[in-house]
Amino acid sequence: KQHLLISYLDSTIMGKDEWFNQQCLAIRNLLNTSVECVYELSEFKKLTEAMKMGLDARVRYTKMVIQVNFVTLLKQKPINKITVKEICDMAEINRATFYKYYADAYELMEKMEEQILSELQAVMQESIKEGVEMTLIRILEKMKEDGELYIALFSGNGDTTFPMKIFRMCYAEFEEFIHKKYPRLSEKQRAWIYVYTAQGSSGILNYWISDGMQESAKEIAEFINQLIDSTLKNL
Fold this sequence. Notes:
By secondary structure, the protein is an all-alpha fold. It contains eleven helices and no strands.
């Protein structure tokens, strides 16, 4: 039985995390010296999975600390002036830990944007059946929850193209709605409508976020929806 468990441990010690590997090695050494093994393989797998869950929590915490301090720096200076050393000093981690997850500050920002887009897409998919205005309200409410993050990313220090990335992501969800509302238009014309309204909406969104999100999500969503309706009512 010890032999099976040791073989399982050897196959498990493959990650880059030093803490997890140390825990596995300690158990392996204990198995080598024990006269009798009290674990079945299935129970042992549960133990290592529990250890991995602890590892996952550590990874999430480390990434959160890196991202929070990156946002703090991004509010102070443009991304091309932010060094990995600065991020690590503020986060109180070494650079080897940073490089486990990100190549540089640009990849860090890219990963954060990907996570944001994924979260906003989930919000859209849950609310699109309630209509455009309600979907906009839900999206803007989500943005306001993480206000400091959006203010930093939308600033001149961050990614000025990010608002349009959000609206490009939204197109797949809104395309069906536009098709139902304007069935006589061609696919290209519907795309033109979306680009036209998205450009204007992203400008409003950018201004709202840069101005500190003072107005409610509902007020901004209603205004954008009214503009879209009044612009397209004769189509």
